Each structure stands twice: as structure tokens, then as C-alpha cells.
């Protein structure tokens, strides 16, 4: 049996309960004061990191308005398009997938209002017959899948030679448990049931999964929180981290 055939019979990494949870949030995903308010605050930080990494990877001018022109991008676990839309504005031909059909419907509606041509699909990464892509993004997703090792291999399989993977996820530390699970969820800053702390990956665990999938991490930074700056890029990875990886 070929590797392709084996891949098709593997159980998808999507957790139906997780997909249903996020699908219920689709209606106000684009409300900066709604249930996805934390993502709205996190998105500029992640975009700052992505822009820095694509400029470095492809030797681009940091003042260029559309640095991804002529390049393809895949956003895995796109939600209602908070990242996919900026990637399209940066010039990429964007394909974006999510496990919740409700999210895809909201994403398509918002992209139409914004005049953006983004190929949104409600499907698992295992089912996507497209690519490879110059840029693959997967932000705050791997902690929600059932089989992270298999999921990492699927991300690697969508990445073109010379391409760039950007991945972010919470770290499994006492700080993330206190702030993200016991703090933010109990205070209503994040919808209850969003996180399962036991599924969080440490940077070392995540890097090992990516290495087994044939990827090499070339950069890693923390996303920290402070009373003054709020969420910001930092050397402190105790709460959350974002990384860039390429094929070995």
C-alpha cells in the first residue's frame, strides 16, 4: 500500500467536539469585543512575527506593501478569517480551511464584504488535495487536534520546498494554566471549554513533532502579556509561543 493510501485511511486529526465548540462562536468572530476578543488582540502580534519571518526567508523589503505577491498561502484552522484576510492583503493567493462549516460561512461573508478573493473550505487538512504552498500558517490550532504528530506531518506535506511554516500555540506551564484556563476562561475573557491544558505542547515537544515530520525550526519567540504593552513578542515563552520552520 502506498504512503498516499495510508494517509487517506488515517483517522482525521479533527476533534468533532472542538469543531462544534468553535462553530458556535462563528456569529461574532469578527466582533473585537465578542467571544473572539482575545484573538483580535493577539492577531497584530502574530502578524508582526509573520511579516518579519517572510521578509527574512525571501529577502524582501520590509516596506513592501504586498510582499507575498506571487506566492501561495494555506491557513489551517482559519476560523472566520482573522489571519487569512491580512495574508490576502499582503498579496498571497490564499486558501483557508477550518473544521467548522459555520466558521467558513462567516469567513466567506466577511471576505465578500471586504472585496477579498479567498478560497475558503470546510475540511480537514488531510482531505485537502491542493498545494504545495509557499507559506503554511497554523495558529492556535495544534492544541485542539486529536493526533498532533499526524497533524504536524500533514502540515509538512502541504509545504513547498523552500517554503515557510508559521505555527503558534500555548505552552504547557503553570502560567498558561493559571492565566488561560483558570483565569481567562473563568473571567469570561475566553469562552469556557476553549482550552484543555493537558493538550498544550511545550516548545521542545512541538519542535520534536515538527522534526519527525521533516521540518526544522529556524526561529521561535514567546508571546507574553504585560499590564503596559499587553500581548507582545518576547523571549518569555511561558504563556504562548510562535515559531517558523522549513523543510529539512
Question: Would you give an account of this structure?
Answer:
By secondary structure, the protein is of the alpha/beta class. It has one domain (3-247): Vaccinia Virus protein VP39 (Rossmann fold). Helices cover 35% and strands 23% of the residues. It is built from 8 helices and 8 strands; from the N terminus they run αααβαβαββαβααβββ. It has helices at 3-9, 16-23, 37-58, 84-89, 101-114, 148-157, 174-184, 203-212; strands at residues 72-76, 93-97, 119-121, 133-139, 159-170, 215-226, 230-234, 240-247. An 8-stranded mixed sheet has the order 3-2-1-4-5-8-6-7. A hairpin with a 3-residue loop joins strand 6 (215-226) and strand 7 (230-234). The two termini are 25 Å apart. Mean pLDDT is 88; it is low at 1-9.
Descriptive tags:
eight-stranded mixed beta sheet, alpha/beta, 248 residues, disordered N terminus, Rossmann fold
Question: TL;DR of this structure?
Answer:
The protein has a single domain, classed as Vaccinia Virus protein VP39 (Rossmann fold, 3-Layer(aba) Sandwich). The N terminus is likely disordered.
Amino acid at each position: 500500500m502506498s504512503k498516499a493510501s495510508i494517509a487517506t485511511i488515517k483517522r482525521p486529526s479533527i476533534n468533532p467536539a472542538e469543531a462544534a465548540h468553535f462553530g458556535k462562536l462563528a456569529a461574532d468572530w469578527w466582533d473585537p469585543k465578542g467571544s473572539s476578543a482575545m484573538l483580535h488582540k493577539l492577531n497584530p502580534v502574530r502578524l508582526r512575527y509573520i511579516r518579519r519571518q517572510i521578509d527574512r526567508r525571501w529577502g524582501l523589503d520590509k516596506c513592501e506593501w504586498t510582499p507575498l505577491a506571487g506566492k501561495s498561502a494555506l491557513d489551517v484552522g482559519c476560523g472566520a478569517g482573522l489571519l487569512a484576510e491580512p495574508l490576502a492583503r499582503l498579496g498571497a493567493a490564499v486558501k483557508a480551511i477550518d473544521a467548522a462549516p459555520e466558521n467558513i460561512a462567516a469567513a466567506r461573508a466577511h471576505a465578500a464584504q471586504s472585496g477579498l478573493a479567498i478560497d475558503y473550505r470546510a475540511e480537514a487538512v488531510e482531505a485537502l488535495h491542493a498545494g504545495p504552498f509557499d507559506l503554511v500558517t497554523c495558529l492556535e490550532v495544534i492544541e485542539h487536534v486529536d493526533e498532533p504528530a499526524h497533524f504536524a506531518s500533514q502540515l509538512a506535506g502541504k509545504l513547498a520546498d523552500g517554503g515557510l511554516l508559521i505555527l503558534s500555540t500555548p505552552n504547557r506551564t503553570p502560567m498558561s494554566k493559571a492565566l488561560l484556563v483558570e483565569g481567562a476562561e473563568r473571567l469570561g475573557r475566553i469562552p469556557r471549554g476553549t482550552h484543555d491544558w493537558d493538550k498544550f505542547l511545550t516548545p521542545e515537544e512541538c519542535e520534536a513533532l515538527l522534526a519527525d515530520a521533516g521540518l526544522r525550526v529556524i526561529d521561535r519567540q514567546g508571546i507574553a502579556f504585560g499590564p503596559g504593552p499587553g500581548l507582545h513578542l518576547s523571549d518569555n515563552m511561558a504563556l504562548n509561543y510562535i515559531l517558523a520552520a522549513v523543510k529539512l
